[in-house]
Amino acid sequence: MDIQFAEIEVFAPKAEAAWAALQRQYASRISGAELDHLLACFVLGLTSPACGEGDPGFHFDLCRALVAINLPPERTEAALHTVPEPTQPWVASACQLIEKQGVKIGLSLREATGNFKDFLAVEANGAAHHGASAIAREK
User: String of b and e for 53-77 (b: at least 16 CB within 10 Å)?
Assistant: First the structure.
């Protein structure tokens, strides 16, 4: 996987916060697969302002890495590849709203950093100084 530590560091705190909020708000109301998919929708939205027009494979790998921070491998793959049958009529619209919320946060991250690609390059250079601990945290 070509995901740099910098990309994970930029987006991971937002993805982790979203996962905590999704669990608080929805865990008792929808299936686990739906909850996992909501996280994947958020992460897709979050990363789209930075990666949406670039290499789709890289964007997908970044989404996978971010979802995998909170979910085990089999749930990560299911969340990214499968849209679960909704148990509640509002779940499909919730997916769209959560993805839009991710886009808003991703846009504000991009605005806060100015040129996002330059920011990621600076972060990647800084991450190189973390050595083995950075690699361990990425996995």
Answer: eeeeebbebbbbbbbbbbbeeebbe
For the chain, which residues score pLDDT lower than 70?
1-5, 114-139
| pLDDT value at residue 117 | 59
Residue 114 has what pLDDT? Answer: 63
The per-residue pLDDT for 24 is 97
**What domain range is 119 assigned to?**
5-138
Cα 134 to Cα 13, 18, 65, distances in angstroms: 15, 23, 14
Count up the domains in the chain and report the number: 1
Rg, Å, the chain Cα set? 15
CA torsion 97-102-107-113 (nearest 10°) is: 160
pTM of the model: 0.80
Query: CA 71, CA 68: separation in Å to the nearest integer?
Result: 5
